[in-house]
Prior knowledge:
With 438 residues, the protein is mostly helical. 80% of the residues lie in helices and 0% in strands.
Amino acid sequence: xxxxxxxxxxxxxxxxxxxxxxxxxxxxxxxxxxxxxxxxxxxxxxxxxxxxxxxxxxxxxxxxxxxxxxxxxxxxxxxxxxxxxxxxxxxxxxxxxxxxxxxxxxxxxxxxxxxxxxxxxxxxxxxxxxxxxxxxxxxxxxxxxxxxxxxxxxxxxxxxxxxxxxxxxxxxxxxxxxxxxxxxxxxxxxxxxxxxxxxxxxxxxxxxxxxxxxxxxxxxxxxxxxxxxxxxxxxxxxxxxxxxxxxxxxxxxxxxxxxxxxxxxxxxxxxxxxxxxxxxxxxxxxxxxxxxxxxxxxxxxxxxxxxxxxxxxxxxxxxxxxxxxxxxxxxxxxxxxxxxxxxxxxxxxxxxxxxxxxxxxxxxxxxxxxxxxxxxxxxxxxxxxxxxxxxxxxxxxxxxxxxxxxxxxxxxxxxxxxxxxxxxxxxxxxxxxxxxxx
Length: 438
């Protein structure tokens, strides 16, 4: 029997604890999904109460995305040095405080600062959860588990959005943030008790008591324990950004970052602007929220289908196909629909393909980066890529302000998915020609 705990996890059937961790990761990503989109649900009420135009609203919609960019890089890197578990708990505390304070904001400036700070926690959470989901999965089910974990994002928007629509029908926009704060706070004790540190992290860093902690976790997984830790590598295991640009990893880092950046512009154009677009068509904020929920129902379906298909097909091929389909459906969304049912159907179709591509990208990140830089590498790609998330709503806002119609704006924003598909194909060709990073 292997004495390397990572080999044991990779080669053995998954146990109950592993499925519990994956389920918790889904719940944590659901939290991320609702927290990011909370400002979208609240946007129509904020614009009406404070009298702000689309250009300024686009900036406000992007503030937590800017925080996510910094949080993914800075806090994601800390997860490779301090551990996945403490970073996840710290991010939950940041997000709880941010959501609570957002409900008491009294100006665009204060709300923007609060949403930026909340984004720091959301970004760090994304990087750490993606790493821990990959590290608790066996080799056979790793892509499926990471994709399934990412499906929590639209699930959180669907459930939270349904609740937000009810709240908006009875209260003002602040109730959305109050609900988000309560939801986030409830997950702190849940993560504390159910989420042990990653065995892969303990094996790489080997802190005091690592053998006992690894064996305790292996026992809870139903696997055999080990007598001693494998010897440390002779070369120091540095976990930093420089490692991401070492020979064998640099091209992967750059191409995946640019692909994620380009596609996420398209993704967040759909998610951030749907409520305001629907309200401007003459519907109420509650109806606008329902269309956004349907976009995420489609996103959840896309995530689940892609997760299942990774068991039979190459994940990169699936992601490229989803990106090309998202180009088509975002343009269809831009043509408008005669009624609310038509809008919901097209939004769901656009959400299906855009979100399927995003969750597939997370699975690719988990494969592309080794354990010692998995959280940092994922955080770097997401962090820089979130520049696309920031640019997407802002660019769309200023295109609208310049007098462009929905069809033109949708055409421009859909180009992000097309560029991402081309970059991903290029990165795949490079992978075939280069030795795989260990």
